[in-house]
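ingest -> validate -> predict -> emit
validate: passed (alphabet ok, no gaps, 146 aa)
predict: started
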Amino acid sequence: MNFDQLLEEFNSRNPYTNAIGIEMTEICFDYAAGKVDYSDKVINRNLHVHGGVYVSLADTVAGAAAHSTGAHYVTQSCSFQFYKATDKGTLFCTARVNHRGRKTCVIAAKLTHEDGTLAGEGLFSFYKISDETNPLHQCMDKPKFR
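emit:
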């Protein structure tokens, strides 16, 4: 499996993220990016993007970064900080692996508004449930943590 196939799999095979409009935009070795657009599907009663959507976006993007080696992981734990509400536009997320061990992977995720304002950030721990059957190759140029 290559990065394009993994990206397609993340965008097509997750009913929950599809229902709320999360879209993965990039997957590279130890890195991933995604977004969700402001819509009636993701807002709370105050007309801001629901906090659960922030965490869902971060968890999904961090999970894609974990899976970038071809192995399968599940979320083990997370800690998330909310900084700014989102009441329009698109919420973006980038995630980069901080540590990849034999069975666990720790990933930092950052959520930003269209203007680059930091909206939230989290630290996610993933547990490997299967070995790498189709390791993916590193990108020539790793994207910077946005």
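The chain has a mean pLDDT of 91.
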